[in-house]
Amino acid sequence: MRSAPPSSLISDLLESERLAGRHASLHRERVALPVLAQEVLVELQARYPRAAAVQVRADASFPVLTLDAARMRLMLRNLLDNALRHGSDALQAPDVQLSVGEQGVNVLVRDHGPGVPDADLPRLAEPFFRPDAARTRAQGGVGLGLHLCKLVVLAHGGTVTLENAKPGLAVTVVLPMHL
Questions:
Q1: Distances (CA, A) of 114 to 12, 83, 110, 168
Q2: Tens digit of pLDDT for each residue in 71-99?
């Protein structure tokens, strides 16, 4: 059984409140997202040994961005933790793709697990919401991970899209290139 320790839950709730405020303070610095994603995957290997198999693919021209590094780390950790946890039965490791698009930079994290019921997709990033398929004690989580991701992205002026990838769930984050 793996559940969030009380201190982690409290930290997540406090961060949620800070980010939900109209005047969320970001501590911007130059961030290489491909490097940050690799660092997060190394951290996650203690819990998910198969995190070592995840490859971060990035366009050669992927820019260094001015972002809040700590909050981007939180976003990437939550997305990758979800992909590793919910795609744990899949033979294929999650996909991480960083690219430059018309709207800005795209961060795609996709697992190859069962996905979620289509009816649950609109609520997936709501605080404390967990689809029925994820409500087992062994799966852990309290339903704040995707909510925090969404708040981090919104604070940076970006968008989050969640869709079933059949198989799996694909989360696409778009961040403006010029912040």
A1: 26, 11, 11, 5
A2: 999 999 999 999 999 887 767 899 999 99
77 half-sphere exposure, CB direction, 13 A CA radius? 18
DSSP state of 49: G
Q: What is the pTM of this model?
A: 0.82
Count of beta carbons in the 10 Å neighbourhood of residue 44: 21
The structural domains of the chain, ordered by start, are: 6-175 (3.30.565.10)
The closest of 109, 33, 122 to 71, measured between CA atoms, is 33
**Cβ distance 146 to 162 under 8 Å?**
yes
Contact 27, 70 (CB under 8 A): yes
Q: What is the per-residue pLDDT across 98-135, written as a single tens digit (0 to 9) for each?
A: 999 999 999 999 999 988 899 998 888 777 667 765 44
Three-point CA angle 135, 138, 144, nearest 5°: 50
Q: Residue 96 is inside which H or E element, if any?
A: strand 95-100
Check residue 50 and report its DSSP letter: G
